[in-house]
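Table S2 (text version). Query chain:
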Amino acid sequence: QVQLVESGGGLVQAGGSLRLACVASARTFSNYAMGWFRQTPGKEREFIAGINWSGGSRGYSDSVKGRFTISRDNAENTVYLQMNSLKPGDTAVYYCAAKRRTYDSGAYSDLAEDYDYWGQGTQVTVSS
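Corresponding structure-token output:
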């Protein structure tokens, strides 16, 4: 089983920045596409950003495009989410997730159900 541990959340003022990190226990981290999702109580988990197995393909939700950047360091088994120009609406628990590569795809997905492993989440709170 793959374990994912997020860190870097906290309280920040609107307009500020945070950098989230997610460290995976996987021996072959490049076997997984990675995604970041966020969730508030009573709402469905929302796709934020995804990155393919190598880092060569990345995608973002419209709500964060231009403000957030996803990256990965396969040598360190870590995926990052750099969050700039934060808004109060970004307040949520942020989760990283891993999606196994298949014979024909190492791409990320924007659907939570496509991911195989999840971290415990880290709280991000943006004050106005």
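Notes on Table S2: The radius of gyration is 14 Å. The mean pLDDT is 96.
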